[in-house]
Predict the 3D structure of the following.
Amino acid sequence: MEHKPRWAEMCARILQQCEVVKGGRENLASVLDVHPHDLALWIAAKSGPPRPVFEKAVDIVLAEHERRAAAEESAKVPRRRRTDL
């Protein structure tokens, strides 16, 4: 069994999340400004992406996290006052 570097595995998981967020591999390749073949290698954890690509991918994940947190916060019902109990 071939042992894959942990860096490549971690990057692959992040890129897989980005692929879902951006609606597919072609869209993600366009956003990251990389060739789809290179992206496929990184998603398969055959190698890790260059640092600038990795940083863009992390930014995508963080932005999605922030978007979801904001959506959850805005959907919450206002807390009741103690006097309303």
